[in-house]
Amino acid sequence: MGGDPGSEASTRTSGQAVLSESPRLRYLTFSALYTAQGIPEGLTFFAIPAWLALNGVGAAAIGSYLAVIVLPWSFKLFAGPLMDRWSYLPMGRRRPWVLFGQVG
């Protein structure tokens, strides 16, 4: 009664919120995915190079490590057209790629 005006429309008969109709659930999902991406990225680009430097690894070796780690981002130019061309339609156009990216 005192909830959101659209709260009844954003639940199915099972009582679970629907992602496409619930802004709160969309923000929560976005935040969870962003956090799941940011933690490993922060470790990879900041914590590991700092740890390597503290343990006496040279700057050239740390630079080589970072160059290899950044290689997948170099291929984003080619990944976009692939995502646009092939999709698994029962899950939507982008969701399979998001799931694949989170697993990989």
Labels describing this entry:
104 residues; mainly alpha; 64% helix
Topology (elements, then pairings):
Layout: H1 23-54, H2 59-74, H3 76-85, H4 95-103
How would you describe the overall organization of this protein?
The chain has 104 residues and is an all-alpha fold. The chain has a domain at 44-103. It contains 4 helices and no strands. The chain starts with 22 loop residues before the first helix and ends with a helix.
Distance between the termini: 43 Å
- Beta-strand percent range: under 5%
Provide a count of the helices.
4
**Quaternary organisation:** single chain
TL;DR?
This protein is mainly α and 104 residues long. Helices cover 64% and strands 0% of the residues.
